[in-house]
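The instructor's notes for this session suggest beginning with a concrete chain rather than abstract definitions. Hand out the sequence below and ask the class to guess, before any prediction is shown, which regions might be ordered.
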Amino acid sequence: MRVASGEARGIRLKGAAVAGIRPTTERVRAAIFNILETSQVIDHRAVDLFAGSGSLGIEALSRGAAWADFVERNRRQCLVLQDNLERTGYADAGSVHRADVLGWLGRAGTEAVGSERYGLALLDPPYRMDDPTPTLAALWDSGLLVPNATVVLGHSSRQEVPLRVGGLRRYDARRYGDNAVAFYHA
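After discussion, reveal the predicted structure:
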């Protein structure tokens, strides 16, 4: 697995350290960031929820995001993620948070101030998670998104995702074999 494009293009990333982690494929990551407009990434703070290897957040950094927070609950996977940040030269441009996503959103939302909000949120939860709606709702309710933020949700192509959650409105959806991606505006 490699960074698909941007300044870290071609750098190899470590994958899953534990069973059940399914990194977003290079093909899907490239497609996501080709669909996003440059203005949706460059100079924005990004958050990578259910980060796993960190490939989505690292891709955002490679394409010009100003900062990325990575939220992953597995300790061993957090170590892999930190190593991937160091491999790509982004150790000083991101922070790894070992936490459950819903718990982190609740805590981070109560602590956030203006500059700590995100213009880009990337979510690729485990496919065994039946419904991403509660996570999208918690993200919206957290107050962590700036006006007009972009939210990208990876999910199984067999799964339906909502058109609206809180103030999030789906504006695009794509399928790539078993993978699907939904794009939301705040």
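Then share the key points. Residues 75-88 form the longest helix (14 residues). Strands lie at 45-49, 67-72, 94-98, 118-123, 145-156, 164-165, 168-176, 179-185.
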